[in-house]
Amino acid sequence: MLELNRFFKGATKTESVNFAYGGATSGQTNVSDERVPGVLKQIDSYLQDLALTGGQANAQALYAIWGGINDFDPIAKGTPVNPITSVNNAETAISSLYKAGGETF
Would residue 86 count as lying in a domain? Predict the structure, then answer.
């Protein structure tokens, strides 16, 4: 069971899972360290955890996907980026979770 941190006083307790990492791109990588997962790799980790337990994504849960801004980090170095990549990655993220049983995004 997930434990609440000591600063969590009086608020409603909910069980949640957070695979997020700062600096994540919408794809497989991270702008600060290639070994740290991007959004699609985070979702892959979640789906692998589900597979290990033989479960499926909770259809009653809310799935929040936040990513994309770090995809544009290369622009600061003069490297062009294709915004369609971010859109495609978001679609892949949602589709993957939906196929696993998630319904609310």
Answer: yes
Place of tokens 């009653």: 60
Does any domain span residue 90?
yes
Q: What range does the domain containing 95 cover?
A: 39-99
Any alpha helices (H) in 23-82, and if so which ranges? 39-53
Number of domains in the chain: 1
Residue 40's alpha-carbon distances to 76, 84, 103, in angstroms, are 23, 15, 18
CA 91/CA 55 separation, integer angstroms: 23
The tokens 């319904």 sit on which residue?
103
**pLDDT digits over 30-69, tens only?**
999 989 999 999 999 999 999 998 889 999 999 999 999 9
The average pLDDT across 57-83 equals 94
